[in-house]
Amino acid sequence: MFNKAKNSPPDNKSATLIPPDTRSSTKTGTPTTSARPSLSVIGGHTQVEGDINSDEDLTVEGRVSGIITCKQHTVTLGANGYINGDVFAHTLHISGEVTGNLVAHHRATIHKGAQVSGTIVAPCLVLEDGSVFHGSIDMDPDNEVLKNAFADASGSMTKTTPKATDEKRSTTSANASEHNTTEAKAND
């Protein structure tokens, strides 16, 4: 009786046991590429000079000099991160230092300890206590810069050319001088 169980081929047991285990681990929350968005990270000891186009969430812990385009995803700047250039994203979380324009399709959050110099264009903006901001803010959802920047966000991503960015900067600078220029420091 015991000999029969020991002599039975292990392949039958494996074939019986493996499929339920595979199915159960998938059902209990094993991440798949469609369930968990991908993430790119620029590490704290990395410096990037040039434009970045990303079709996934992006976290910057290092230094970036150039245009960051991440129109359908989130860009997060860590507390020790630095960006010198414009950022176009669906959602922005800024904890480090930015010199340039921030354009968010949905929301921009400037966290405690962040320092931002430039123009922020976003329909929803959060400036936390302890953040420093010098520049202008435009929260009009019908802003031309916002409309032009995200006109192709639902389709394929297109690279913003430096010429187009310079035109946007000059338009934004002209608008900033014509409208209110804001210097704000959120206090604890």
From TrEMBL:
Residues 1-40, 152-188 are annotated as: Disordered. Residues 1-15 have a biased composition (Polar residues). Pfam families: Bactofilin. It comes from the Bacteria. Residues 22-34 have a biased composition (Low complexity). InterPro entries: BacA/B. Belongs to the bactofilin family. This is Polymer-forming cytoskeletal protein. It comes from Halomonas alkaliantarctica.
